[in-house]
Automatic annotation (TrEMBL):
This is ATP-dependent helicase. It comes from Motiliproteus coralliicola. The lineage of its organism: Bacteria, Pseudomonadati, Pseudomonadota, Gammaproteobacteria, Oceanospirillales. The keyword Nucleotide-binding applies. A motif (Q motif) lies at residues 5-33. Residues 409-429 have a biased composition (Basic and acidic residues). Residues 238-383 form the Helicase C-terminal domain. Residues 382-462 are annotated as: Disordered. Keywords: ATP-binding, Helicase, Hydrolase, Nucleotide-binding.
Amino acid sequence: MRGIYVFSDLSLHERLQKALAELNLQQPTEVQQQAIPKALDGRDLLISAETGSGKTAAYLLPSLHRFLATDAPKSGTRGLVLLPTRELARQVFKQFKQLSAFTHLQAGLITGGDDFKYQRSIFRKNPELIIATPGRMLEHIKRNSCDLSDLEVLVLDEADRMLDLGFAEDVLAIAENCRAERQTLLLSATLKTKGLMQVVDRVLRDPEELILSGARDQHGNICQQIVLADDRTHKERLLYRLLEKEQYNKVIVFTNTKAQAERLGGAIRYRRHRAGVLQGDMTQDERNKVMDWMRRGNINILVATDVAARGLDISGVDLVINFDMARSGDEHVHRVGRTGRAGESGLAVSLISASEWNLMASIERYLRLQFERRVVPGLEGKYKGPAKLKSSGKAAGIGKRTKGRGDKRRGESEAGAKKPKQRLRDQKSIGKRRKPSGNKPAGDQAGSGALGDGLAPFTKRR
């Protein structure tokens, strides 16, 4: 951190200071130290910081201070926070409740999966802050459920993830319906996402950049290991052994498919572990129930797809297991970021089959680190890695055939005539044909119409 401060040095409203004291939060994180003063000045900000760094409070606190400092009883919605997933929106809503506990400020939660008519009633109550996912928020805008003409602050949290999920057009459409004279804060774990800078150019006005850490620089307090596996069955045996022998408080197991998550969740529960599943086909109530179980400690193992890899803040997760390797370096960073939060140490173990080696190597190269190789005693596999490696760390493929064999054929062709092609039809038996006799009678040679010339009629023998 660049300096040692306490929240009382940040000139926040006294009611917010009281809430921070109640939460026993005294020292701001680095992103809060740098972002809050600039946000209080009304600047548009482009913030890149790691997950678990306190980004949510970095934009909530200055927004709430603004609403408290300037009373606007007759205005519409004053702040809008857009987030990529329902789980992350619920977390931000919960943190808003904590920070605004001693104020009159109200917030509304607008996400997919909830009753549309009930959400319209939330807009009619005119809360100061709306916390929403882009799809459902745009639907309300199209149906004239809300009025954003008085909006003072627009926050795009986890903007890179929103673009990955295909929300770019929705975000731009929502921004066009907001008041032009507003403050916009965009937060992202990485600024390398395709299309992100186009959104920045269209939504923000002369933003100040706060690049505190990129995806490659994150998670220095997390030990990252790989275990080689022969196939899926071997992976399952390795997973069960890790869950039995490793010391952990809570663990998240990541898979790439919903079907795989459901199957593994059932298999883990069958082995008498307290496990739950989180995947995209679940209803909102089911997802909420699983997350509550995990936070309360009713379960300590969560099998999840990448729907849970962004933004989820579950305290006490000290182990992450990638049953399937993440499909990109950024996704790997966000999965691993579920552990080692707020400076705590963590462990991430990835199970790697032969088909995933090159993907693992590309992620190593992207992160500029080398994963620690680990062997689980008693479950050593036959696969030991590629026989040959390229300079990039990927497996070297089989080389092209040498020219020796072809050269030999060409030499034979030049030395003699080309051998005729042998056909099966040429080898078929066509039967024996009678050879014509060499000694013919004189009459035959004269054309006297003797038998055999094919012209004279038969004559009766005397």
